[in-house]
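sry for the spam today, last one i promise. struct tokens for design, 377 residues
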């Protein structure tokens, strides 16, 4: 370890690079609700057809993140992030100019793959900072704020310039990222030890994927549940979900504070348990007040849990492979979650949907907590 460079502090440049990667990696999952209407309107697509395009992009992101995890554990993260950005800009540009559904799908797949590469590099870079907990928090909070701004901007762009304008806006937003990702902390030199040889447990990745599927599945139909089951108006549901999204940021501070006092294992167990109950209440209790409270609690727990999962993965393997692989697993769960969630909701109703969400969360908790115990003691 003699002569090794010290881990960089999380200053403005490093923080901006981490936020850029986290934002790009979550673009598809978080912006799809505002991208889908534009795609469907321009190409006269059914919900099934537009949903397939969305799924192809999300799965491309997930597979690219997982596939790049090992490469992201080695030096050269800024370079591979740049390659990912080239693919992303080309893909969004192709989707914007697409004359038909086939080119639209190809553009989304290319963009999704590029986003996954950037995401893997950024998530792996968390482990190269001097404070992985703070790095995780900065990436998650900053990414959330950027996505929130784009959720507002994209519909405005579509209204002003047409149904595919959102893709052009996203391509333009990626251009500053070429400069920002240059500050991504690089991987440790091989002389730092065998950390890069630590295997990523498959059950851990499956648990993260299952959690991602339950959260995205519940979030995708949260408005449907609020209107159809809790008896709220569409406007009221939108306000509730906006409040919950903003309140979720409190989960980052709560997570850091509680983890320092009671330990990671206890706080992760508490977050998973409360989140599972909150998802059950949202679906199974036909009350607007219960819906509001459960939505806020759920999002706070989800954000806190996400920070802890990234921090645990960073502690387990300083090469960054665990964090990148966890990001890929989360992306796969996010991409696959809505389809089975919709089928369960249609087939068995809201109360059964809530019960399945709670049980799936409990199942995911077992290997997740075992991994936390093994890593953190």
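last one done:
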């Amino acid at each position: 370890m003699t002569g090794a460079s010290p881990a960089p502090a999380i200053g403005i440049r490093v923080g901006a690079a981490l936020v850029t990667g986290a934002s790009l990696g979550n673009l598809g999952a978080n912006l799809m609700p505002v991208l889908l209407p534009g795609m469907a309107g321009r190409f006269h697509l059914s919900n099934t057809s537009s949903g397939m395009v969305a799924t192809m992009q999300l799965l491309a992101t997930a597979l690219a993140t997982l596939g790049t995890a090992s490469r992201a554990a080695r030096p050269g993260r800024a370079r591979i992030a740049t390659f990912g950005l080239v693919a992303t800009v080309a893909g969004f540009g192709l989707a914007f100019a697409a004359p038909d559904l086939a080119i639209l799908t190809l553009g989304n797949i290319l963009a999704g793959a590029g986003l996954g590469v950037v995401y893997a590099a950024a998530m792996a870079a968390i482990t190269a900072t001097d404070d992985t907990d703070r790095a995780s928090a900065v990436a998650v909070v900053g990414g959330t704020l950027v996505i929130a701004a784009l959720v507002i901007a994209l519909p405005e762009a579509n209204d002003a310039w047409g149904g595919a304008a959102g893709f052009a806006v996203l391509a333009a937003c990626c251009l500053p990222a070429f400069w920002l990702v240059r500050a991504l902390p690089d991987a440790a030199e091989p002389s730092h030890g065998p950390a890069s040889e630590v295997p990523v447990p498959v059950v851990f990745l499956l648990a993260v994927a299952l959690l991602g599927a339950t959260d995205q599945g519940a979030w995708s139909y949260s408005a449907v549940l609020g209107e159809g089951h809790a008896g709220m108006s569409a406007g009221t549901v939108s306000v509730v979900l906006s409040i919950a999204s903003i309140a979720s940021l409190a989960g980052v501070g709560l997570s850091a504070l509680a983890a320092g006092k009671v330990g990671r294992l206890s706080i992760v167990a508490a977050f998973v348990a409360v989140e599972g109950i909150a998802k059950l209440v949202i679906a199974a209790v036909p009350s607007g007040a219960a819906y509001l409270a459960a939505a806020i609690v759920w999002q706070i727990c989800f954000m806190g849990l996400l920070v802890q999962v990234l921090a645990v993965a960073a502690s387990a393997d300083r090469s960054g492979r665990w964090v990148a692989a966890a990001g890929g697993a989360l992306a796969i769960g996010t991409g696959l979650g809505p389809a089975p969630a919709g089928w369960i909701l249609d087939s068995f109703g809201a109360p059964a949907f809530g019960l399945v969400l709670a049980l799936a969360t409990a199942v995911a908790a077992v290997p997740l907590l075992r991994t936390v115990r093994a890593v953190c003691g």
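The two ends are 25 Å apart (CA to CA). ok im logging off now
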